[in-house]
Write a structure and sequence with these properties.
Layout (H helix, E strand, L loop, with lengths): L1 H23 L2 H4 L3 H16 L5 H9 L11 H4 L2 H32 L1 H5 L4 E3 L6 H7 L5 E6 L14 H21 L4 H7 L9 H10 L2 E11 L5 E3 L15 E9 L10 E7 L4 H4 L5 H8 L4 E5 L12 H10 E6 L14 E7 L14 H6 L22 E7 L25 H4 L10
Helix pairs in contact: 1-3, 4-11, 6-8, 6-9
């Protein structure tokens, strides 16, 4: 602790000396130079970041199967054969994911979505589960990533206290989960529930930490939070290893991080936020969800991404979250499992289509859209070279980009008919929703 604050004081002193030097040698001459501004900003920024405990970054790198940095706080674990085996497995899995999807997806986004690819605004990924990897490839410069899913956010326990056998079984469980995710691009709900709750490294938190490290970021801090009735994220004590659960609390995990170089620059503080929440209308209409809805509304104008979303927003049961997403988004990139084509009012959205639309997989065969099939008869629609979502075979996937029309930026929501409950619509069954269609994100 003493060394950490000593470093902070030293960096702050450097910033002061830089200011003093330029002030004494001719303020008018030097004050506006870019070099001066950069040097002061860098010193001040480093002083601010010195307060963070490097433990979290060492922990994230360990989980991500990366070589340890010098003087790692997990040095005793890094030397174990279990750690070496984990690094080998993760390297192989990551290489496969990079070659099968990520490199082509990045190249496509840079070409087809150059504005969104470079944008620093919030990137919003509903029904994402823990799939940070995909949204990082699409919006690599976002200053904040907001994901939500039905699954528990989980925790990052004191891994240094694990026995060798406990460490081996936890790392093996992570590897099993990643093999599944990296091979078919989404999790099956029932399997995912077992995988995320059977070990001490539980929920999405360990995976999110690992993915941040693997995508070239330095993890600074990890905090549990609850959503207040006013829509604010209130941090919970670090000693609280399990966040409060129940129908009246929306909880999640907040990870502060910065780039290790790259296009955004190493010094900018960024955030990854995951919320554990059920957004069925039964819950969305309850009083305790006002805070969640206020928080999501505050993300406007976000760049939103939807993939392998179980076609939930095709029906009334998820109409509230559908309208909230529409109202909070400046752009929406989705495959056909997100929202039906009729959700996008032509007076509010410009639409562009990519890839190939074919019948949904058998489990969701009833969600076929004749109107979308008709759109895809246009032979000028550009193909996509990668497979993503439920139709993850190359040449079988589709994507649609919706950009809000400038004249309608302040107008939220979809077509008026989207709010109306159809006559005879059955009431939701919360218990059944957890099983919904046997498939749910993350991807």
């Amino acid at each position: 602790m003493i060394l950490k604050w000593a470093r902070a004081l030293a960096l702050a002193a450097t910033a002061a000396l830089v200011t003093l030097h330029y002030g004494c040698t001719g303020q008018n001459k030097h004050e506006e130079t870019q070099a001066y501004k950069d040097s002061v900003a860098t010193a001040q920024r480093e002083a601010a970041f010195a307060k963070y405990d490097r433990y979290w970054n060492d922990y994230a790198r360990f989980l991500g199967g990366m070589e340890p940095l010098a003087s790692s706080k997990l040095d005793s674990l890094e030397k174990l054969p279990e750690a070496a085996a984990h690094r080998k497995v993760f390297d192989e899995l990551w290489k496969r994911k990079e070659n099968n999807l990520l490199k082509d997806l990045r190249a496509w986004c840079q070409k087809e979505l150059p504005t969104e690819y470079a944008d620093t605004r919030t990137a919003f990924y509903p029904f994402a589960g823990g799939d940070y990897i995909t949204i990082d490839a699409i919006y690599p410069n976002a200053n904040r990533y907001v994901l939500f899913g039905l699954e528990w956010e989980g925790k990052a326990p004191e891994i240094k206290k694990f026995s060798t056998e406990k460490l081996r079984s936890n790392l093996a469980n992570m590897q099993y989960s990643m093999r599944h995710l990296f091979s078919i691009s989404f999790y099956k709900t029932l399997e995912m529930g077992k995988e995320l709750h059977t070990q001490e490294l539980s929920g999405h938190t360990p995976f999110l930490m690992a993915y941040l490290a693997r995508t070239g970021h330095r993890v600074l801090d990890v905090n549990h939070f609850k959503v207040t009735p006013q829509g604010k994220l209130e941090k919970l004590p670090k000693s609280l290893h399990q966040t409060p659960r129940g129908d009246t609390t929306v909880t999640g995990i907040m990870i502060d991080f910065r780039n290790e170089g790259g296009t955004t620059g190493e010094g900018e503080l960024r955030q990854l936020i995951y919320l554990s929440v059920d957004v069925n209308n039964v819950y969305m209409k309850q009083n305790h969800m006002k805070g969640f809805k206020a928080y999501i509304a505050s993300l406007k104008p976000a760049n939103t991404y939807l993939k392998a979303a179980s076609y939930l927003m095709y029906g009334y049961d998820f109409s509230e979250i559908r309208d909230l997403i529409l109202g909070s988004s400046e752009t929406i990139l989705q495959d056909d499992s997100g929202m039906p084509l009729k959700s996008f009012d032509k007076n509010q959205w410009n639409l562009k289509f990519y890839g190939r639309y074919i019948k949904p997989i058998d489990l969701f065969g009833s969600k076929y859209q004749p109107d979308l099939f008709k759109v895809y008869q246009d032979t000028t629609i550009k193909p996509i070279s990668f497979g993503i979502g439920y139709q993850f075979g190359k040449g079988s996937s589709n994507l649609m980009l919706a950009r809000r029309k400038p004249a309608e930026v302040k107008q939220a929501g979809g077509p008026a008919s989207a709010d109306a409950k159809p006559e005879g619509a059955a009431k939701s069954n919360p218990a059944a929703d957890i099983k919904r269609d046997a498939i749910m994100p993350p991807k």
